[in-house]
Amino acid sequence: MYGLIRKNLCLWGYGKAAALFLGCLIFSISGRLDHGISYEQHILSAVSDHYYLTYFMLPILLLSCFSFLEDDGIPVISRFHSYHAYFLGKWLGTWAAAFLLTAVQTTAILLSGMGLPLGDQWGLPAGAAETELFSMLQQIFPAPVQAFLVCTLYQFAGSWLIFGICMWIGHFAGRRGAVPIISGLYMLSAVWLKLPAVQNLPFTGFGHLLILHHNLGGHYRSAATGVTFLLLPLAAILSLRFWWRGLPHIQLRGRGMAAYYVHELMIRKNLLILFGVVFGITLYKGMGHSHTESGTEWIYTLFAGHGTGYFQVLPFIEQWITGGAPLYLLAVFVEHTVSGQSVFVSVRGKSCRSLMRGILSAGTKFIGIYTFLWMTGGLLGAVFIGCEMEGPAWNLLLYAVLMKFLDIYLQYLFMLCIYLFTKQVSVSFLILAAGNLLCVLPGALASCLPFGLSGLMRISLMHSGIGISAVTAFGILVSFSLLLTVWLAVFGCRKILD
């Protein structure tokens, strides 16, 4: 253990501690220039300054995490009886870096208040910026010094936990994969201070693990952070105990070509892309419609898509991202399975029809998982923005999810048909993009086009006279899907081995 601690400190270096000391000193001194508060009140204000903690201290902390991401060599790991014991020891060993960061910050804060009058009480001068913060803290702590000590200990524990979270992410995602994940989590913490829609999410970010008073607002906030403190270490230990070589692939029951193609398609990267699309669009819609009170209105907004007879850039980009992301992954899958298939696969398939059934089955399951994520996103989004999912909202959600499945499934079949004739997956994908763009055409023909028909803006649901009826839209997608499925199963399969 002592060797790991010493190695971690050597890898971490002390330049980050020096930068934290200077930055904290500057932030803390600037906070005492505009009004006269006591020394105890000043140090509590400095240690609770969420702008300093979010935009200066947290980036230095996350930068420090990359010093610990790399595993030691086999000789070091072999000294432990298992990998998860090694990881736990390395994580526990980072307490020294977390303690040093906290001690450096505390020293800078204590020095910044030198010369201020002593006074360990809550009373503030009129107009002090800390009035709201102190009114919250004085309901819990008897005096500012006790609050300062607890906030400091909380930041030490939070820093230690963040080290472990980043090391955990780095183990499964690798150093290159950890950079965008950790950066995305930091961005959520950074925008939390400015966007009320993000503040309403029951999401525990890095900021909640460092800033104590961010967990004191709301009836669920402290409970969510407390659960995170308990479950994240448990999840890390269990995952490293049973899947330390990497996360397992999703295994779906089945035999033959269908099971083979499902295994090829359901890789972790593809599933993460689907999750990222659903999470990103749902978060974007939730932030832009945080004051929506009706569950029906929220579902309509989430699945709105793009109407017909006009062109708007953002709705069209949103529609193409939500439909194009799974289609792109399916296009890569088709290119790999059809053009890149080996003689062994062809022989094992026994017939071209079994190959086609396998490709269709794998694509159907993939689209089904994607639409299930959309159903989950719709429900969680309603909870996050505080909408009540009444009966009509549930019916609209089920209809919207079913239509999205049929829409993407039909485009997948259409792309597969074009590919069988052209053997160019890029051509089929571009034709799909052009088909979605046809919605800008005026007239009834554009309203009945099957591409992008799952967008509720094209269906007469909440606004009569706009779009076609729900039954007609459903019938169009089902009819075209059945027609193309039959053609591919009977005739199209003959071209799969050309």
Q: What is this entry, summarized?
A:
This protein is mainly alpha-helical and 498 residues long. Helices cover 70% and strands 0% of the residues.
Note down, in words, how this protein is organized:
- By secondary structure, the protein is mainly alpha-helical.
- Helices cover 70% and strands 0% of the residues.
- It contains 22 helices and no strands.
- It has helices at residues 2-12, 15-30, 39-47, 50-65, 74-77, 83-93, 95-112, 131-137, 144-192, 196-199, 206-210, 221-242, 256-265, 268-288, 295-302, 313-339, 343-349, 352-384, 391-422, 425-437, 444-448, 470-490.
- Helix 4 (50-65) crosses helix 9 and helix 13 crosses helix 18.
- The longest helix has 49 residues, at 144-192.
- The protein is globular and about 85 Å long.
- The N and C termini lie far apart (62 Å).
Main attributes?
498 residues; mainly alpha; ABC-2 family transporter protein; membrane
